[in-house]
Every structure is written in C-alpha cells, then in structure tokens.
Amino acid sequence: MSSIELKNVSYSYDPDHPEDTTIEDISFKVEQGEIVGLIGQTGSGKSTLIQHLNGLLKATKGDILYGGKSIYTQGYKLQTLRFEVGLVFQYPEYQLFETTVLADVCYGPKNQGLSEEDARARAREALGLVGVGEKLYEKSPFDLSGGQKRRVAIAGVLAMHPQVLILDEPAAGLDPEGREEFLEQIRQIHDRTGMTVILVSHSMEDVARFVDRLLVMNKGKLIMDGTPKEIFSRTEQMNEIGLFVPQVTFLMQELKKNGLPVGDETVITVKEAVEKISEALQ
Amino acid sequence: MIHAKSLTYDYETFDSEGNADGVVRALDDISVDIEHGKFVAILGRNGSGKSTLAKQMNALLLPTSGTVWVDGKDTKNQDDLWDIRQSAGMVFQNPDNQIVGTVVEEDVGFGPENMGVPTEEIWVRVNKCLKRMGMEPFRYESPNALSGGQKQRLSIAGILAMEPKCVIMDEPTAMLDPGGRREVMKAIKDLLAEHLSVVLITHYMEEAVEADYIYVMDSGHVVMTGTPVEIFSDTETIKKYGLQPPQVVQVVDELIKKGVPLNRNILTTEELVQALCHQ
Fold first, then answer.
1. Which of A20, A89, A216, A270 to mutate to test the interface with B (most CBs of B within 10 A)?
2. Residue B179 and residue A243: Cβ atoms within 8 Å?
3. Chain A partners of B170 at a C-beta cutoff of 8 Å?
4. Confidence bin at B92 (pLDDT 50/70/90)
5. Per-residue pLDDT tens for A193-242?
6. pTM
7. Is residue A21 one of the residues assigned to a domain?
8. Cβ separation B175–A140 shorter than 8 A
C-alpha cells in the first residue's frame, strides 16, 4: 500500500486568485519505507509541498491520500495525521522550548495522550536513536551545541513514532563530518523502524549517495521523478534549473569528453568514479 | 589588513538562575595574518571557534587577552570602533536577518546613511554597488521577492556601500541552493578583482579550494595553515578535524592509493582532466 499519494495537487496562497499557484498539478506516490529526496531551487515550492503532506496547508485543488484514504474527507482526523507524518522544519533547533532536554522530547508523545511514564520511555528511545546520551537529559536544551540541539529537535518528532519522517534540509550548516554522521544516523533509524523518509536538500552530493529516488521541482512543478542516476544523467536540464550535478558526475563527463574511455554510465559517487577511472587507465 | 596576535577569548556560562557558573575558552592563543587583497578561508567543525574569530575581526567581540588590529587599528580602542566596522564589513549566514530596507536600493543606502554620508554621495554609492553586484535590475523590488543568492548579493552590496577594505563572510552559502552558492562565489571573485580582502568561513570545501590561504580551526586553536594544495593534500589530517576534501580530491587520493601516478596538487576538475587526458 502506498504511504502517501498526491493527485493533481495545486496550491495558491491567494484565495482570490487561485490561478496564482505556488505549486501546480503535482502528482506522485511514495511507498512505505522509501527514502525519497526532494530537490529544487529556493522558491521552487518544496517547503509549500511538504507542508501539505501533514495537512498544515490544504490544497486549493487536487487530493492527498494517506494510507489509501483522502485526508480531505469530512471528519478526517488531521491531528492523527500530524502524529503519523512527522515534519522537521529547517533549523529545528530554534523550536526547542522546554526547560530540559527530556521534557522537550516528551512534549509530543504527551500531546498524543501518553502517560508521563510512557512519554518518558518514548523520549529515551528517541534520544537513543539520534545519539544523545543520558548525561544531557536534564540539561537545558539551550546549553547544547548546535548539532546536539538539532538532534534533540528531531528526537522530539521521532518520539511520536511517525510512519513518515520529512526533513527540510536537516544537514544545513553542519560540518562535513557532522553531515555524514547525521545522514548515516537517519539511514539507521530508517532501517530499524521501516519509516518512510522524505529529505529536502540543497546538496546534490548528499542526495546522490543517500536516497533511492529523487523528485525535482522547478517553478512550482514536479519536473522529474527517478533514481539519482537517472536524474543526474540529465545534466543539461539540471544546469538550466540551477541545481547542477555532483562534482564527481561532472568530472566523469569531462573525462569522457576529453577522450578517457570511462563508459556511458552516469557516475554519482566517488567510489564508482575511482573504479571507472582505474579500469579506463588499464 | 587584519592581524591577530596571541588572541584569546573567554566567555562566561550561566546557570538557569542567571548566575555565572563557568568560563569557556573559545579562542586560545591564536595568531592570524590576513594580507591585503587576499582571499582567506577559515575551516573547522561546528563549535571550533570560527564565528567567534570572525566577530573579533570587526570588533563585535573583543579579546580577553592578546590583540587584533584591523587596518592598523587596535580593536580594543573604543575611539576607532566605527572606523574598524567600516573597513571590515560582515556578511552573515541568514540573508533575511541582515536586510533592513523594504526596497532593494534603500537597503543598500542604509549603511552610508548611518555613517552620515551626504545624500548625493549615497546615491552615487548605491548606483555603483548595485551595479557591481549585478543587482541593478532589482533596485525597486522588495527584498522578499529575491532568491537566496540575490539576497546575499544584496547584503554584500550594502556592505560595499560603506566602502570597506575587507569583507568577512560567516557561512554566507549555508542556506543557499547550488545556483545561489555559485552566485556568492562569483561575487567574491568580483570583490577580489577590486583588490578587497575576503575572509570566508565555510563548510563547503569546493569553495575553500579557490582561496589563497586556509586556516583550519579546532577547539579554539588554529591547527593547520597553508595553501589549499598544502591543506587538502593532507587528507588524513583534515579528516581528523571533521573536514572532508572535495570529491575531486577524494578521487585523486584513491587513485594514488591504487598506484596511479598523479600529483597531489590536483584540486579541481580541470586539473584532473588535464592530468589524466592531456599528459
């Protein structure tokens, strides 16, 4: 069963001018357990789109199905949807507000109606998943480092046991090692829980090695949907919409143009590039 | 242009009641030398002290001990504060936090107006700086309507209008899409072509590759200094400090390990293509 399905979704911020759309005629399906990347220039409609997925914005046109059921049917419990589809905004560390780390992560599960004790158990589990140790539990979230704060904020969403986790640029501003660790942690959480993950990113290098499938947006429209290899093989189109391709993909194309027989396959990781170049040199 | 000697900076931490409960050393005996007209990158993991150092470079923070000179002036000297801030302008990560005008041209004029520059002269500067940053077509627009890259170019134009000698940028590309990051890099090259100095703090190693000189920081210390070739050819050491070479350098490194005779000074796609296809 598909986890989320969008059918011809359009949205306009101006109710008097519904033709003035921010996103237009968007259709796609995401299966449970997929890791999907969402890329596009600033202003292409990515953030507007993801706010539809947990009902924060309501489509002006079209329909959204969650678990096969339209979220726009009369009496649909949007609150439940928000527990199941967890949305982590950009720079989530600015949304921490409780007096201690543990209390902050307990906030979501308590809102779900869990007892204090159960909420604490969920919080401990979630903090464990993101690698925040017990000695930080009683600290004020505001005394933590940037990276720690971000982990706590994400734990706050994980503690609600969402089926779908949507992350809006979760690695922005992290150092290369922090980025790597963070994405690896998300993958481990995915593997352990079977969650669907939707990752919005501006780093082509990150999505190339992290996601199974890429959705590309441009000017409010979904213009491509495919594996990272398929998407990055369309270099010219990616350049035109200001996204470009990973450095290593460009390198291999240039090598080929200059006569090194590295083959026709699109290369998106350093490992593949090293293999192809070694073969070509022999 | 900017010199720091034995610069140390401590800040106090407070408990939940607001009482001081400790001191953290954010910068420990740092010496830095930014020459006039040069492009210097500062790298290091989150929390290593990069932003604290940047704030020392235009007297937003003052040394606990040691000295920082900006264009020959000691930052501790209160009388020189405005001169220092005028000669070393700063661009921050989030463009939305540094734009004050409701119209693009007004935003550029804000700095010189605050400095008491005569109105006629302000307009001359606004026109010039909008042109230099390629923002002329947007001069009557609201900054809200701009893309991330355009907003950062607007921030830089606003700083240029104060006629600085050096621009310090603290992760100006962290929130931008790939196109926006390229726009900022192009703006940096334009500044250098006009003989300004640029200090760039970044987590994007492809940007640092273009610098004349790199400082790597870790736990409040400068732990590596050198040209991009010197820094990035030492892959093992930079990994220790939370950094990762650009993909092209990673490829070179792996190929060398496999016995391909390549020079370690290769940093860019063009250089690697040259080495593998034309030599």
1. A270
2. yes
3. none
4. confident
5. 899 999 999 999 999 999 999 999 999 999 999 999 999 999 999 999 99
6. 0.89
7. yes
8. no
Residues in chain A: 282
> What domains appear along chain B, each with residue ranges and CATH number?
2-228 (3.40.50.300)
- In the three-class reduction of DSSP (H, G, I as helix; E, B as strand; rest coil), residue A35 is classed as strand
Supply the ipTM of this predicted assembly: 0.85
pLDDT digits (tens, 9 = 90+) for B66-79: 999 999 999 999 99
Instruction: Output the CA–CA distances (angstroms, integers) from residue A159 to A85, A104, A110, A132, B13, in the order listed.
Output: 12, 10, 10, 13, 30
Tell me whether residues B178 and A145 touch, CB distance under 8 A: no
Average pLDDT of chain B to the nearest whole number: 91
Compute the distance between CA of residue B19 and CA of residue A86 in angstroms, rounded to an integer: 37
φ/ψ (deg, to 5) at B14: -125, 150
DSSP per-residue string spanning B18-78: S-EEEEEEEEEEEEEEE-TT-EEEEEE-TTSSHHHHHHHTTTSS--SEEEEEETTEETT-G
Contact of A55 with A82, CB cutoff 8 Å: yes
Q: Both tokens of residue B236? A: 């093992």
- A42 to B247: CB separation less than 8 angstroms, yes or no: no
Query: Domain total for chain A?
Result: 1
Chain B residues in contact with A258 (beta carbon < 8 A)? 273, 276-278
CA distance B120 to chain A (A): 36
- Domain residue limits at A99: 2-227
The residues facing B7 across adjacent strands are: B30
